[in-house]
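Morning F.,

Quick status update on the modeling queue. The single chain you submitted on Monday has been processed. Sequence for confirmation:
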Amino acid sequence: MTRVRTIVIITLILLGILTAPTTSLFTHPAQAQQARDVPANQWDDRLSVSSTTKCAVNSDNSVWCWSDPPEKDDIHYVPTPLYSKVPEKIEGIEAKAVSASIDSVCTIALDNELWCWGTKNGTENDDKPTITAPKKVGMQVKKVQLINGKVQVIDTNDNVWEWGLEHADQAMQYRKKIPSIKVKDIHTSGSTSCAVDLGNKVWCWGNNQDGILGSYEPEHSDSPILIHGITAQKVAVGRSACALDTAGEVFCWGDNYFGQLGSDTPGSTAIPTKVEKLPADVTDITTDDNTNCVLNASGNSWCWGKFRDDLGETTDINHPEIPRKSTLPSAQLLRIEDKACIADKAGYTWCTKDYHRLISPGDPHDFSMKKIENIRLTSSFSD
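C-alpha cells below.
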C-alpha cells in the first residue's frame, strides 16, 4: 500500500511540473527570439542603396553587395568602386540588416552583433581599393545606417550611438552616445538626425538648416530637441524632415525650396505640416535630399518635391509640392538615392538603368527597371 501511495504522489508531482505555467528558466529559444523587439517592417533594413555601393540581405540571410557608380561626368563618380556591377556574396556573414555607403558597409548579424568593413585609405592611379575583412565591432544593435561620413546605430537597449565613418569598425573607441532619449526608429542626412522615441515622440539634432530642428534657434544642437505637435512611427530626413504619424498621415518640415514639404506655402517652416492628397493607407516613407516618396498598402508610390523623371511623371514642374502617383512598379520597399530601387512583392530587387541626376531634358535615357542578379530578400512578403 505504501508503494502504491508513493507512485501516486510521484505521478501527481510530475503532472504538476508538466502542466505548470512555463517560466523563463524553461523558455524555448524560439520564444526568446519572439520576445525581442522586432521592427514593424522586418524587411525594411534588408536593402540599402547609396550613390555607388548597394547591398541586400537575401532570404537565407546571406549578404550580397554590388557597385553601380555614376559615369565620369557626374560629380559623384568614384574611380575605384568597392564591388563589381554583379552582386558578390560576402563570405562568413549571416545577417538580418545591412547599410551601405560609398565605400563602407555594416551589417547586423543574427545574434545582433554589429560587423563593419570597407576600403583602406584611397588608392592611387584608379587601382581597385583593398577591401578590409568584415570585423566584429563589439556592439549589439537593432538598427544601423551609414551616410555622408557617419555611422549611427540603435543598440539593444534603445540607445543611439554615432561615430565617424573613418572609424566604422572602431566604435568602442570613438562612439558618442546621444543623450536623454530611448528610440525605436532613426534616420539621418549626415548633418541632421531625427528619431522616434518609445512613446512615438519625434526628436531631432545636428545642423538646424531652415528650421529642421523644430525652431530656427539654435543653429546647431548636439542634444535632441523635441518636435512639437506630432507623434510618429517612422521618420525620413533629407534637406527637410518627414514623419509618418501613428494615424498613417505624413507631416514634413524644414526646407521647402523644391516643394518637398508638400505644401503650397512658400519658404521653409519649423512646424510639421500635413502633406495633403496622399492615400489613406500609407505604410512607408523614403527620401533623398530634395524628393520624398511614400508607399501605400497596395505597393503604389506617390512622390513630391524636386522633379525626378526616373520616377515617372511624379511631379508637376509648376507645382512640385503636389504628390503625384509614380509610374514605378508595385513594390514592398522603395529607395530613391541616385537611382530608384524597389523590392517587389515576390522579394526580387529592381533598379532603374540610368541615374536621374545625369540626365538633362532631351538627353537619351533609359529609366526602365533592371532586375538585380542573385538578390531575393524573401520568397514572398506575405510570408
